[in-house]
Amino acid sequence: MDYEFALVTKVQVTDEDKTKLLSDIEELFKKRSCEICLKEVSPEVSGRRKLAYPIRGELEGVYTYYSVRVPSPAALRKVEEELKLNPKVSKHILRYLFIRKDNL
Predict the structure, then answer these.
(1) pLDDT digits over 24-83, tens only?
(2) Which pairing describes strands 47-55 and 93-100: parallel, antiparallel, or unpaired?
(3) Which residue from 55, 62, 50 is spatially nearest to 17, judged by alpha carbons?
(4) Total-model pTM
(5) CATH number at residue 69
(6) Helices (DSSP H) in 5-72: which residue ranges?
(7) Which domain range does residue 89 map to?
(8) Which end of the chain has the lower number of beta carbons within 10 A, N or C?
(9) Considering its fold, how many domains does the chain have in total?
């Protein structure tokens, strides 16, 4: 099953911490046998943007997008669970969203 994963992180995250955060997230996917097909970090599509409403007191966020192939819904639930429970990851994340891509 193919999914798009959108991630919004805090603006205050340093480049070093963001690199570490993204590698930790990628490791979570690999640990659950998920394949990362595409990571979108180009400034035209992702990057720093004003939020529509404050999230945890933040008015801006940094967007990153992934295209991910997930072997099963159970693997996706495990990834989501670890995103919430892993303090190294969750402290920098404002919001995330998995969107299933339908075969059209």
Answers:
(1) 999 999 999 999 987 776 555 567 889 999 999 999 998 888 889 999 999 999 999 999
(2) unpaired
(3) 62
(4) 0.83
(5) 3.30.70.60
(6) 15-31
(7) 2-100
(8) C
(9) 1
